Amino acid sequence: MSAIEDVARSVERAAAVEITGAGTHCGIGAPVVTEGPLTRVAAPAGIVDVQPADMTVRVLAGTPVASLAAALAEHGQECPLDPEDARATVGGVLACGVSGPRRLRHGPLRDAVLEVRVVTGEGRVVRGGGPTVKNVTGYDLPRLLVGSHGTLGVVVEVVLRTQPRAETGRWFTTTAAPGELRARLYRPACLAWDGARTHVLLEGHAADVDAEARMLDLVPTASPSRPPGAHRGRISVEARRIGALATRLRDLEVTWLAEVGVGTVHVGATDPGALDAARFAASAEGGWLLREAGAPDLDPFGLPVPNSALHERVRAAFDPLGKLNPGRLPIAQVQT
Fold first, then answer.
1. What is the mean pLDDT of the chain?
2. CA distances from 60 to 64, 184, 232, 313 (A)
3. Are 171 and 224 a contacting pair, CB within 8 Å?
4. What is the pTM of this model?
5. Within 13 Å of residue 323, how many CA atoms lie on the same side as its CB?
6. 95: helix, coil or strand?
7. Which tens digits make up the pLDDT trace of 139-168?
């Protein structure tokens, strides 16, 4: 029996299932909650196949992102999953839907996923997507699973899109406004703004990176740290409203770092009430805040959760018994 079949058998027999990885994203969202026995399952690990010419890699979902990066580096390629902690597994990163800081240049996490094999709540192994774009038909199951927090199925194997690895990637800093920088730079990988300084990540040939840095008087620096604090969250808002949101956040007891052009704002606070206030600020600008750490009394996702009723209908179709990661996402009241 294969490792994937072992997972399917465990899920089929279980009353409730908690899907485990490296544990690096446990603080995101709500914990698994069940009144009965709980079976923990983990996806197998390993690189199945690298196809440098096709720029794809087939990998088991329990594989650490660091191991995947090392395997692709041998071929001069990468898949920019970019979790905060390289111990994170491929499946864990996809399940939590956390795009890395280079999204401005490389696109959202879901764009990297071409094919998935997943174990449903009934213990069936199903496949969605395909190893190349041209032979993908039907529903876009791979993208649906990204950010589902393991409530739709246990991702056990994926095919990811790869890309050439840049010769260099270096961080710089400046007091110039991020909008001005974006207009003058060629495809920056990240523009991270804290209200006072803009941190710029440039990738490409070393000579090109040096030339752009000289042109705009950028100062070399280390990569920016996420906002400190025991209570942290991630705001999602329309990219064009980051300036207005920043004005609101300046009046709060929080520190923040905005990914300009993307619409992600990382927030940190020493007091849980301040993080709650940041949530109201996000809501006022049409966004929402996901609690990532601390603030135990704060609803992890906030109310209302975008598209929660739609998610509940999808979840009922994939896992009618509600056994996969129960409690991980809030349950919406579905209108019939």
1. 91
2. 10, 40, 30, 28
3. yes
4. 0.91
5. 22
6. helix
7. 688 888 999 999 999 999 999 999 999 999
Give CB contacts under 8 A, 24+ apart, made by 1-9: 3/44, 3/60, 4/44, 4/117, 4/119, 4/125, 4/156, 4/157, 5/125, 6/44, 7/41, 7/42, 7/43, 7/44, 7/119, 7/154, 7/156, 8/119, 8/123, 8/124, 8/125, 9/123
Tens-place pLDDT, residues 269-291: 999 999 999 999 999 999 989 88
- Residue 208 C-alpha from the chain's centroid: 29
Strand-strand pairing, 219-220 and 255-259:
unpaired
CATH of 231-293, one of 3.30.2010.10, 3.40.1650.10, 3.30.70.2740, 3.30.420.40: 3.30.70.2740
SS3 183: helix
- pLDDT tens track for 94-112: 999 989 999 999 999 999 9
If you count them, how many residues does the chain have? 336
Q: Is 115 exposed, middle or buried (0-12, 13-18, 19+ CB in 10 A)?
A: buried
Neighbours of 244 (CB within 10 A): 15
